[in-house]
Specification:
10% strand, alpha/beta
């Protein structure tokens, strides 16, 4: 998948900031240990000389190289053991004087085994997702703000229980989904009339998933499909479709509200199918029932949707009720 070069530059900048931050933290810790625990600092300083000794040994071309190298390695291991044990006895973590880093794989260099590290690409994905979200009506919601009092708890619906019972179940499902979000996981199909809380719950999920460090894109299907179309036919520059495929969680709101076209139908199938194959979840909200979805997108696309967790939203338009209470 391709990403705009500016997102790679943002990732490079982020890693440079991490490097400076890590160096600053280590320097502060070294000064603290030098002042409060000078004997421990001597061990740390001795360890720091090891790399210089190794370089000197290599440059000397000494005939006894192997023996001296083994001695150097043994001495280094003993010093590391002494240092960690001394730090623990003094009440510090054993790795307190190790260089801190966010990514253990690459040490925040962005390169692991000669390739871009996963952490680097995660920064790129999040930057690309944030760029798309700037132009979407994304305003994160919270589960705590979702009130069940707007849903009837008296009349039994065709599904055999009240609207409040259905929505209480939906709320519990979405909260649990967000709290236990991981990759891979299943997507969600939210179906129901307008104003029943689909957007609220999907954005509440987004809020929690973002806190866990995953990349999330939220957008209305009409807006995102239109953007993909403009780029596909060269009327705009960008790679929105690639970003939609790569983000950890994609939330497509108002599917079925877009203008009917073969391109939009193909785009929806492409997005759902490719993300499923990559084991990346998509949350789809729609006012359409299954028959309407089949008529618009065809059985092939809807069959993919049917593999998602299907949540039915029931009740009266909450937005209208809230407006009436103002």
């Amino acid at each position: 998948m391709s990403f705009d070069s500016r997102f790679f530059q943002l990732a490079e900048d982020e890693l440079e900031q991490r490097k400076l931050r890590n160096e600053r933290i280590l320097s502060q810790r070294e000064r603290e240990i030098e002042t409060k625990q000078p004997e421990i600092y001597k061990i740390h300083h001795e360890l720091g000389l090891t790399s210089g000794r190794l370089i000197s040994l290599i440059l000397e071309h000494d005939e006894d190289f192997e023996r001296k190298l083994a001695e150097l390695e043994t001495n280094n291991e003993l010093l590391q053991k002494r240092l960690s044990e001394s730090l623990v006895r003094a009440g510090y973590p054993a790795d307190y004087l190790d260089k801190p880093c966010v990514c253990r794989k690459c040490g925040d260099t962005g390169v692991f085994e000669g390739r871009r590290c996963e952490c680097f690409m995660e920064i790129v994905k999040k930057a690309a997702a944030e760029d798309i979200n700037k132009t979407s009506p994304m305003s994160l919601s919270d589960f705590a703000d979702f009130s069940l009092s707007y849903y009837d708890d008296k009349q039994v619906t065709p599904v055999g229980c009240t609207a409040r019972e259905v929505m209480s179940s939906n709320l519990d499902f979405c909260r649990n989904y967000a709290e236990n979000f991981h990759l891979p996981c299943n997507g969600i199909l939210m179906r129901g009339a307008t104003g029943l809380g689909k957007t609220h719950l999907s954005l509440s999920i987004a809020s929690e998933v973002i806190k866990k460090g995953y990349s999330v894109i939220y957008g209305s299907a009409p807006d995102l499909f239109r953007k993909c179309e403009q780029e596909h036919f060269g009327r705009e520059e960008g790679n929105t479709i690639d970003v939609l495929l790569e983000t950890d969680l994609l939330i497509l709101d108002d599917v079925g509200a877009e203008f009917e076209s073969k391109f939009y139908s193909a785009a929806l199938y492409n997005i759902i199918n490719n993300r499923m194959n990559a084991a990346k979840p998509t949350i789809i909200s729609t006012n359409c029932d299954l028959n309407e979805l089949v008529a618009r997108y065809g059985n092939r696309t809807v069959s993919r949707m049917k593999t998602m967790d299907d949540l039915i939203f029931l009740g009266s338009d909450v937005r209208l009720m809230r407006a009436g209470n103002r």
